[in-house]
UniProtKB/TrEMBL annotation:
Family: Belongs to the peptidase M17 family.
Enzyme class of the recorded protein, top EC level: hydrolase
InterPro entries on file: Leucine_aapep/pepB, Macro_dom-like, Peptidase_M17_C, Peptidase_M17_leu_NH2_pept, Peptidase_M17_N
Keywords: Aminopeptidase, Hydrolase, Protease
Residue span, Cytosol aminopeptidase domain: 337-344
Pfam families linked to this entry: Peptidase_M17 (PF00883), Peptidase_M17_N (PF02789)
Protein name: Cytosol aminopeptidase
Length: 499
């Protein structure tokens, strides 16, 4: 926007389009009906002409319908009859709203519109998620401030109940955008110390403990520290406590991998594979951001977030292939590949998680390239020893659109990592890259004694390319919203069982 020019104001409306043997039928949303009433039905007449060619999720732009708006975007939200699609593992109606409104927000923003009102489309929470996720861009480090005009988004068809749901969606989107910002920030800025400082200064009611190397040494976290010793950046172990319920409620412990840059160590990655490794702390980012959501919504849950933070770099002290380190639980680990470092720092963090007598333990990590090969960006891979935990997480992901997919924890994968030549465990499977995500999960399981544990491998969903239309290309912040909603639903189920 040029200096001195008034801000461009836009409006986004939606309609559902049901098809049957007689053709298609337009079902206007409440917002579209309100606008139509105020403009003598002109928009409905125009939709009759263009809606036949509009695909689900796409919008048509109108520039002369109202003097109040520079532009009106009308979005095809697909059928209003669909909900849970088991084959697609999501609530299609909610996801269509996110996609349609998210893309419309991007369109209007690209046109220079800096303020717009949005139709709730019958689901204000999903509408807010689509809009605020869709309008996010990371350009914090660009000198051209014109790219950073703040976009203001308001609910069009406001009622008290709709505004409450809208606010919930806004907070959930803000949480995911926080994770995206943390993951996008270059590694020379997002050091372990800076990540810890940002976490400690978030505007939420939590207790944050930033532990240092001496504390980790006292806790006998030698596996974690073996990775950290290859870098000049000091390691940090950040512990975040959110207490939204009585102290009698056991906490859910979330553990996030926090490698703020991964060079591969002595087993150096190719240069092209290093570029995105500023986001190898995506697990830690999602954990902190999920707690941000829970605290902002004042959810009645108790959560502890644990994020071991360090760089995986190369110096004279770095881990070498063939080295053996001892984890917090006393198990020895033969390091056959220094680029399999995430599991080394998580091993000690998982051991430490048990000290809180938790209700459940969930770890989140950009752990293996093999997961990206297996699932791509379609879903987060979930390994769990609890059918109950899995069902809750699966159902939650249907509604968030942040899909999860269960992966196996067969005994044969454990056989691939135990009884290493020099130690109790090997940090790589004996069959090399075969089943890499599964052997990595089996390795982590060696440090878990809790009957309700899940490992989320988010390597495949770390980045957005063209797979999630309402997220621009870049780091995705997935599955922050699924993680936050899982905690709430898990506690609800636990309380129901105890009644």
């Amino acid at each position: 926007m040029e200096p001195g020019q008034p801000p461009k104001k836009g409006l986004i409306l939606g309609f559902f389009k049901n098809e049957d043997q007689d053709g298609y039928h337009i079902i206007p949303t409440a917002g579209l009906q309100i606008f139509d009433t105020n403009t003598n039905g002109e928009l409905s007449e125009l939709l009759k002409l263009v809606s036949g060619s509009m695909k689900t999720g796409r919008s048509s732009l109108f520039y002369t319908l109202s003097r109040s708006y520079f532009c009106v975007a009308v979005v095809n939200l697909g059928s209003d009859d669909v909900e849970i699609n088991e084959q697609e593992a999501l609530n299609e109606r909610r996801e269509n709203i996110r996609v349609g409104l998210g893309l419309a927000c991007q369109q209007l923003k690209d046109l220079g519109v800096t303020s717009f009102e949005v139709d709730s489309c019958g689901d204000p929470e999903a509408a807010a998620e689509g809009c605020f996720l869709g309008s996010f861009t990371y350009d914090d480090l660009k000198s051209s401030r014109s790219l950073r005009d703040e976009v203001k988004i308001f609910l069009f068809d406001r009622t008290e109940m709709k505004l409450q749901k809208w606010k919930q969606g806004l907070i959930k989107a803000e949480g995911q955008n926080l994770a995206r910002r943390l993951m996008e920030t270059p590694a020379n800025i997002m050091t372990p110390s800076n990540f810890a400082e940002i976490t400690a200064n978030l505007p939420i009611s939590v207790r944050v403990h930033v532990r240092d190397r001496k504390w980790a040494e006292a806790e006998k976290m030698r596996s974690f520290l073996s990775v950290a010793k290859g870098s000049e950046e000091p390691p940090k172990f950040v512990e975040v406590h959110y207490t939204g319920a009585s102290s009698s409620m056991k906490p859910i412990v979330l553990v996030g991998k926090g490698i703020t840059f991964d060079s591969g160590g002595m087993c150096l990655k190719p240069a092209s594979s290093m570029i995105a490794m500023r986001a190898d702390m995506g697990g830690a980012a999602c954990v902190v951001s999920a707690i941000y959501i829970l605290a902002m919504l004042k959810e009645k849950v108790n959560v502890i977030g644990l994020t071991p933070l360090c760089e995986n770099m190369v110096n004279g002290r770095a881990n070498r292939p063939g080295d053996v380190v001892t984890a917090k639980n006393g198990k020895t680990i033969q390091i056959d590949n220094t680029d399999a470092e995430g599991r080394l720092i998580l091993a000690d963090a998982l051991c430490y998680a048990h000290t809180f007598d938790p209700e459940a333990i969930i770890d989140v990590a950009t752990l293996t390239g093999a997961m990206g090969v297996a699932l791509g960006a379609g879903a987060t891979g979930v390994f769990t020893n609890s059918e109950h935990l899995w069902k809750i997480m699966q159902n939650v992901s249907y509604n968030t659109g942040d899909r999860v997919w269960r992966m196996p924890l067969f005994r044969l994968y454990r056989q691939q990592i135990i009884n290493a030549h020099l130690a109790d465990l090997n940090n790589l499977g004996k069959n090399g890259r075969e089943g890499g995500a599964c052997t990595a999960a089996a390795f982590l399981k060696e440090f878990v004694e809790h009957p309700k544990w899940a490992h989320l491998d988010i390597a495949g969903v770390m980045e957005t390319k063209d797979d999630t239309p309402y997220l621009r290309k870049g780091m995705s912040g997935r599955p922050t919203r699924t993680l936050a909603e899982f905690v709430v639903e898990y506690i609800k189920h636990t309380e129901d069982e105890q009644r």
